[in-house]
Amino acid sequence: MAAIRPRSTVSAWQPSVPGIAEVFHARFTDHAYPTHVHDTWALMILDGGRVDFALDRERHGVGLRNSVILLPPGVAHDGRTVTEAGFRKRVLYLDTSVLPEGLTGAAVDAPLLLDPALRERVHGLHVALGAPELPAGAVERLEAESRLAFVRERLHRWLAGRAPTAYGAPGARLAVRLRELLDARVTEGIGLEEASVELGHVHPTHLIRSFKAAYGLPPHAYLTGRRVELARRLLLAGMRPAEAATAAGFYDQAHLTRHFGRHVGTSPARFARSGPV
């Protein structure tokens, strides 16, 4: 008889702690993230299994051990299960008040931090952010802020001690300008022809190739990922899935659900109902 895989589960919430945009806990048995970007830092620890991911088109694999994974904002990455047992992870999405974007290059060079003390600090912060005896959404803020300060200190020690590394494709000014256009119009979007005209009547295919060469994914995939990120924030703030879909730039709830499942591993409705476990 074939072994029964454990059910995939997701829990996410937005704590009242400055600097932490989202707490995300998940167990995935068979999930592959498409290439995407975040506008926050993603600080991840594994509680079981193995995961394989690419950051800036370089593949990495990691198991339990004492690793901490740090993915910088604005850099394309993916992720996928490696074994039939899948993996369990806990993620903190941190804004740039915790870690400045100037450390992006160092994080791209070394996203795997083999540091048992850092892992223990991240674990302790998760416990403080989701203590089971507290009502959903409540946090002992002083404890959580204190633990975040120690996590930040350790991360700075890892990244700031490295030689300064500039991140970004050289000579990619056209791609940068297109990305700025997309970032400015996440919800309303922009057509390829309009973008081509606005950027100096650049040929559309050249525009797409330039963007993909610089960022590792085509413009439409980048924009979809940004819309999913926006929908996540709206859902955690209490907005209903149908309203969050249109507010984030999707046609309707079904359109959001299709992309949300690929990027987050659950439906918008389940994501909105989840919380500390």
Automatic annotation (TrEMBL):
<dbReference type="InterPro" id="IPR018060">
    <property type="entry name" value="HTH_AraC"/>
</dbReference>
<dbReference type="Pfam" id="PF12833">
    <property type="entry name" value="HTH_18"/>
</dbReference>
<dbReference type="InterPro" id="IPR037923">
    <property type="entry name" value="HTH-like"/>
</dbReference>
<protein>
    <submittedName>
        <fullName>AraC family transcriptional regulator</fullName>
    </submittedName>
</protein>
<keyword id="KW-0805">Transcription regulation</keyword>
<keyword id="KW-0238">DNA-binding</keyword>
<feature type="domain" description="HTH araC/xylS-type">
    <location>
        <begin position="176"/>
        <end position="274"/>
    </location>
</feature>
<keyword id="KW-0804">Transcription</keyword>
<dbReference type="InterPro" id="IPR009057">
    <property type="entry name" value="Homeodomain-like_sf"/>
</dbReference>
<dbReference type="InterPro" id="IPR003313">
    <property type="entry name" value="AraC-bd"/>
</dbReference>
<dbReference type="InterPro" id="IPR050204">
    <property type="entry name" value="AraC_XylS_family_regulators"/>
</dbReference>
<dbReference type="Pfam" id="PF02311">
    <property type="entry name" value="AraC_binding"/>
</dbReference>
